[in-house]
Write a structure and sequence with these properties.
Elements: H1 2-62, H2 65-72, H3 76-94, E1 99-104, E2 109-112, E3 140-145, E4 149-159, E5 162-171, H4 174-181, E6 186-192, E7 207-208, E8 211-213, H5 223-226, H6 231-237, E9 239-242, E10 245-253, E11 259-268, H7 283-300, H8 312-318, H9 327-338, H10 343-352
Antiparallel strand pairs: 1-2, 1-5, 3-4, 4-5, 6-8, 6-11, 7-8, 9-10, 10-11
Helix pairs in contact: 2-3
């Protein structure tokens, strides 16, 4: 009887342990699926924001009569002057770097906002997406492969129903990479290497598997891991775990609906708990919104030191939103302002802000 009891007891314990690990695995899988859904939603939102922002600016430029006249008169120098003047003003007052160019109806570079070197250069071999305008007369915005992979918002310019050319605004993936990095997620924008000969400005870029990395501010620390994984499995499952990293895969399509690459997201396992309960759909958006507001404030005070106008109380409230590159300056400014407080004022400040971290030492 004792032997039978021992066998039954062992069997029950085995069943309980199996059920425990099964539900633990299922719970983690559910959380990972939820995180991927959040990341995908934010990716799509950011793609829309970038594309609409570029389109808005391209539409404004297309209505600039002086720019249209310069194109009509084939005055490349005037076209460059107008584009560079407008984009420099935008950068001066908003600190947003904008690249714009005008293309002639026969696909030659007419003028670009950032240089005059390539004026007159043919684009036909690089920009097959412009063939869209052979059958459409409406603006177009999408991710396209040119000499670099990027967002392109293209607006056709007509005069007396005759196509003069196109105004185009170009943007890249660096701001989006920085946004995801504030959430503990590293983004790799990958272009299929079948476009290697087209993307001549990316031919020296680092590669992962059969992809060329398009964003320049990626995290190089994970390249060895990413180059060692099975991409067929990753593409099939869209998620993969390797060497402490959760890797997520989202395909990238151009304006024609063709797959031209992928977005790869890397989330270290140690940051998994950074995402709240799977039922809390707003958790990721709260983190994104907080970091976005911080970036707005940083830009607002760009010309001066962004921390000098804050009170000590406000600086303490900002503590959890400070990016790594600003922490040293933030700490210096906070210490400098708190040094002017008396012991009683410091105690009152800490109590008012409900700071719950353990503090070692004494206030002298």
């Amino acid at each position: 009887m004792k032997k039978i009891f021992l066998i039954l007891f062992t069997f029950v314990i085995f069943i309980i342990i199996t059920i425990f690990f099964y539900f633990r695995y299922e719970s983690k899988e559910e959380k990972l699926n939820h995180i991927f859904d959040q990341i995908s939603s934010e990716l799509n939102a950011q793609l829309r924001v970038n594309q609409l922002g570029a389109l808005e600016f391209a539409l404004v430029l297309s209505q600039n009569s002086a720019l249209v006249d310069a194109l009509d008169n084939d005055d490349e120098d005037e076209g460059y002057r107008i584009l560079s003047t407008i984009t420099n003003a935008i950068e001066q007052y908003t600190h947003k770097h904008v690249r714009s160019q005008v293309i002639t109806a026969d696909y030659l570079i007419f003028a670009r906002s950032w240089d005059t070197v390539y004026a007159g250069m043919p684009l036909g071999n690089y920009r097959t997406d412009l063939n869209y305008f052979k059958t459409h007369n409406t603006p177009r915005t999408s991710i396209e492969v040119g000499r670099r992979l990027g967002f392109k918002a293209t607006v056709p310019i007509y005069k007396d129903k005759s196509l003069l050319g196109f105004v185009e605004v170009i943007d890249f993936f660096e701001p989006m990479t920085e946004l995801f990095r504030t959430q503990g997620i590293d983004l790799y924008v990958l272009m299929d290497d079948k476009y290697f000969k087209t993307a001549i400005f990316m031919q020296e870029n680092q590669t992962i598997n059969k992809y060329i990395i398009a964003n320049t501010n990626y995290n190089a620390n994970y390249l060895n891991v990413l180059n060692s994984i099975d991409f067929k499995t990753l593409k099939a499952n869209r998620m993969l775990y390797s060497k402490g990293l959760h890797i997520f895969y989202e395909s990238m399509k151009n304006g024609a609906g063709d797959t031209i690459g992928a977005f790869l997201f890397v989330l270290p396992n140690k940051y998994l708990d950074y995402f709240n309960d799977p039922e809390d759909d707003i958790s990721f958006l709260i983190n994104v919104t907080r970091s976005t507001l911080y970036k707005v404030e940083k830009t607002k005070y760009y010309k001066n030191d962004m921390f000098t106008d804050y009170t000590p109380k406000e600086l303490l409230l900002l503590q959890s939103t400070i990016s790594d590159e600003d922490k040293k300056r933030y700490t210096q400014e906070t210490y400098k302002k708190l040094a002017t407080y008396s012991k009683d004022e410091l105690i009152q400040l800490l109590l008012t802000n409900k700071i719950q971290h353990k503090i070692d030492g004494k206030i002298k």
